[in-house]
Design brief:
This protein is of the alpha+beta class. 52% of the residues lie in helices and 22% in strands. Strands 5-4-6-7 form a 4-stranded antiparallel beta sheet, covered by helices on one side. It has a two-stranded antiparallel sheet with strand order 1-2. The two termini are 17 Å apart. Its cofactor is Zn(2+). It is found in: Membrane. It is a multi-pass membrane protein. Belongs to the peptidase M50B family.
Length: 352
Amino acid sequence: MIVNILYILLAIVLLGVLVMVHEFGHYIVGRLTGMTVLEFSIGFGPKLLGWRRKEIDYSLRLIPLGGYCSFLGEDENNNDPRAMNNQPVWRRFLTIFAGPAMNFVFAFVVCVVMLMGYFTAGIASPTVESLYADMPAEQEGLQAGDVIVSANGEEIEFSEEGAQYLRALIADSPVDEPIEFTVERDGELLSFSVMPALVTDEQTGASSYMLGIVFEGRTYTFGEALAQAPRTMANFVGMMLDSLKNLVFHGEGASDVTGPVGIISVVSEVAREGFYMVLYILFVISLNLGLMNLLPLPALDGGRLVFLIVEAIRRKPVPPEKEGMVHGIGMLLLLGLIVVITYQDIARLITG
């Protein structure tokens, strides 16, 4: 019981770190461009801890579902020359954009650390490095050193992308159909038909179909990690955009959407698997936060950026009361969505 509580607290701390990174982006760029910051807060609701330094209030609040960086003149007209409403459009644009941008920067740093420190992050090729005993791949005769050149008739690139494709193919394969492999062994092409086996994780109780293949992996040097990290991030962002498109236009994955409660639950479970998975989940959620906040929706950073673009085109700002009304409605809808998703998360936890 105590261990579970500690992992939940760790998940809350990690979520707080990501919120702090995002809000720090707004904060640091706002200060660098000469704006007056009123408050920098992690969390919402009642204040747990607070202090004041150089006329800025800093606070840690009860509900760890977000945070905010409040600027003078952010939601109203103020005559102070350091107020946000008196700054040029480009300064306000950079300040708002800096929040999501910091999430991407943080994800980049975490990605570099993963690539340098953990071979599982740096799959080099679709080469069998080792096999789990008594698993289908070993039982059917695959051997360490085999290079998989095709699967189910699809040619496999000898690259990291080829290995990643294989992992996805194995994970998504029909449970009642074998996977047809062609491998190169000592210059000879051999064919194998391997049926996935259901494997249950003893710690988490989660079940998945596996073949028992460990693909060749390696860590990256610092220079290689710097070069590879943007490609890794681009691949993940592409997958996130595809998922978002399928969700919006086809409703696919609607039942899998999670809110803060679900995220804390997932992170607390994943963290048990070790430090690499902590880094991995930080990487994925940070990318998600950056991407979601750039969506052109009211109450999100992307929606505020849209109003600034309109202001730049019109050469005059949208009346604050109209913009505030749009963001207010957006915030109500967003809070309503969070309530629905949170109910769904809690129902999942109760029913298992």
